[in-house]
Amino acid sequence: MNSFNFNKTHLKKQTFNIELCHHLTLNTLSHYLNIQLLSITEIYKYIPKISIIIIAYNENPIIIKNTLQSILMNTTLLLFNNNIKEIILIDDYSNPPIDDNQIRTLSKIVSYQ
């Protein structure tokens, strides 16, 4: 039925099934959650909160906007289940600084420094 070979008894708070850990790397996490683990909704409470940090230096605002859109599209289930705590965009002293008005439509700026 699924390629992971585990059941709900294998999942315990604060621990993961070893086989599950081997399959859920950072690069494949959202892919596996969106496709193969869709039926196991309890899995989300065992996934720790995730912070995504994007550091940009003299990056085109369109690329930053596309990056944010890609994150939002590819982590839908994680966002829906409140597993993503925050997405932080850091402007590493770009010249000129990133214009936050071009990105504001996709984001809620909590703090700006």
From TrEMBL:
Q: Which InterPro entries match?
A: Nucleotide-diphossugar_trans
Q: Which domain of life is it from?
A: Eukaryota
Name of the protein: Uncharacterized protein
Provenance organism: Schistosoma margrebowiei
Q: What is the lineage of its organism?
A: Eukaryota, Metazoa, Spiralia, Lophotrochozoa, Platyhelminthes
